[in-house]
Amino acid sequence: MSAIDIAIICIYCLTLPFIAFALSGRQDSVSTYVGGGHNLPWWVICLSLVATETSTLTIISIPGIAYGSGMVFVGLAVGYVIGRTLVALLFLPRYFSGQVSSVYQYLGHRFGQAMERSVSATFLVMRVLAEGIRLFAGMLPVAAILASMHFPLPQWVIMLVIVGLTLFYTMFGGLRAVVWSDAIQLAVYVAGTAACVGLLYHHATDMQIHALRHSSRFHLFHKSPHFFLDPYTPCAAMIGGAVMAMASHGTDQLMVQRVLAARNLTDARKALIGSGFMVGCLFAMLSLVGMLLWARNDEKTLAAMGLQTSDALFPAFIVHDLPQGLAGLLIAGLLSATMGSLSATLNSMTSATLLDFVTPCRVLARRIGLSALAFARLVTMLWAAVLVLAALVFAHSHGPAVVFGLSVASCSYGAMLGAFVFAMFSRHARTREVLPAFVMTVVTVCGTMMFWRPYGTTIAFTWLVPLGVIVMFMYGLGLRIIGKIWQ
What percent of the residues of the chain are helix, what percent strand, and what percent coil, each to the nearest 5? Predict the structure, then answer.
């Protein structure tokens, strides 16, 4: 690794926390700490949403997928835009009219505290599992790249450094620091990706560009007979992707927290819908990297190039083919993607803990003699420790555990979306029906993901959320019918 690359990485890691802290302003209350004062510009929230839902794995994986399958992730983004538009039209007016800070407070107003805390606790558990996996897995390509560039660092050292830097500005800057840092981090890895696209296109021959233009890699969808197994067919991408986006951006505190920090409903809608288009553009840029690498390598297979997995494609390009400076920028971009998702997770878990478990938190804060804001920062620190422990546990896991960790959010999304649909659109729904249906749905979908193997493979991740919604309705309506029979 050159001195220029090391300097870029160090400057980025050392300056970002202080810039984010400076932009956060004064944190004088828990409301400001977890809600950002509800006056953030819509465009910053839009950038933060995109940075939150992308990670190091996103940046590493999409070019490898595009190398073999083309722009299928852009097709998935079409479903994302549809889903976010529906959330903006149907869900956000109810959230803003109810003046909620945690999205699960809406369920509490409709079904009571038991429902609110049950769904919030599910969110916290699922987020620990998913982010623990993502945190550790995000360190793997960074550690491999640094080792290949003769600057080896143990994975746990990289993890602790990133968690420490992220915890600094998240603890002391609150949501405002998280959102502003997300915007900066997104700009870093978008700039690095754009530079890679430009470099690859500039060095490609006319014959390679011609082969790429006349290939099938610009198709957005797969034509596959396996309807429920391929996530990139038109139905799976648009319908499954739309329902998944409705769940993630309409019921997950990780995303909704940012939208609720907007000044008004109009700004919230612009941020949410705009983030869908921005994600599509980011997916397109990352896909172009993979497609241009396919053309540059004269259509060779990954195996022919000595690569065992598609995720090894982009790191190999960073190590062997990028000029000095640009390699450092890309590594900084990978680190920023991990820091962005981590800071967002820490703040959203803190907000869910403080807002959905108000009474226990107040009692505990009084007993240990801390102010509300100091206690909020302590909660953030404790969740950071839990995430590090989860990441270290999953470091010793193999394939099935990793797959479970990456898919775990989708297992709860269907039940969450079903609960919110019952709350918003069913006047007759009652807690005694919705709460048991929620619990049974989470268990059913988790079991389906782990044990159902049609044709020897798992169901496509895009269908897990629609499956959860359907199962939630079946359980809820079934319990209502049983209740009427027993009356």
Answer: 80, 0, 20
Q: What are phi and psi of 404, to 5 degrees?
A: -60, -45
H/E run at residue 287: helix 265-296
- Placement of tokens 């097709």 in the chain: 75
| Residue 217 domain-assigned (yes or no) | yes
State the Cα–Cα distance between residues 131 and 133, nearest whole angstrom: 5
Residue 150 Ramachandran class (φ > 0 left, ψ -120 to 50 alpha, else beta): left
3-state secondary structure of 395: coil
If you search the block for the tokens 């006349």, which residue do you land on? 214
d(CA 254, CA 258): 8
Average pLDDT on 64-91 reads: 90
290 located within any domain: yes
pTM: 0.89
Asked if 444 and 467 touch (Cβ cutoff 8 Å), the reply is no
Amino acid at position 396, single letter: H
- Which structural domain range is residue 47 located in? 3-396
Look at 140-144, 161-165, 451-455 and tell me which has the smallest mean pLDDT. 451-455
Percentage of residues in the chain having pLDDT higher than 70: 93
| Rg value, the chain, Cα | 22
Q: Would 357 be classed as within a structural domain?
A: yes
Say how many C-beta atoms besides its own lie within 10 A of residue 25's C-beta. 15
Q: Of residues 397 and 129, which shows the higher confidence score?
A: 129
How many residues would you count in the chain? 487
Q: What CATH number does the domain containing 219 carry?
A: 1.20.1730.10
Name the domain count of the chain: 1
Start-to-end CA distance of the chain, whole Å, equals: 73
Is 65 a residue whose pLDDT tops 70? yes
DSSP string spanning 39-51?
Answer: -B-HHHHHHHHHH
Report the mean per-residue pLDDT for the chain.
85
Work out the average pLDDT over 48-77: 86
**What does residue 262 show for φ and ψ, rounded to 5 degrees?**
-75, 165
